[in-house]
User: Which sequence fits this backbone?
């Protein structure tokens, strides 16, 4: 399971750009701060590599390696 902390995420898009499987996409609607946050599009295909968590400059993504 992957969680994106909406309070920490600034919408930089690094997770969307660098995910090797492309499980993230930009949300259609901006949040209350006007930021289009990443949303999970294909979480079931996630390899749990943790790259999104490592590349996130705000530590807003958590990858739970347990099923």
Assistant:
């Amino acid at each position: 399971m992957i969680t994106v902390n909406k309070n920490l995420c600034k919408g930089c898009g690094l997770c969307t750009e660098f995910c090797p499987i492309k499980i993230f996409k930009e949300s259609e609607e901006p949040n209350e701060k006007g930021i289009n946050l990443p949303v999970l599009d294909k979480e079931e295909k996630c390899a749990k590599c943790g790259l999104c968590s490592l590349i996130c400059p705000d530590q807003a993504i958590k990858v739970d390696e347990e099923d």
Summary: The first helix runs from residue 14 to 18. The chain has a mean pLDDT of 92. Helices lie at 14-18, 51-55.
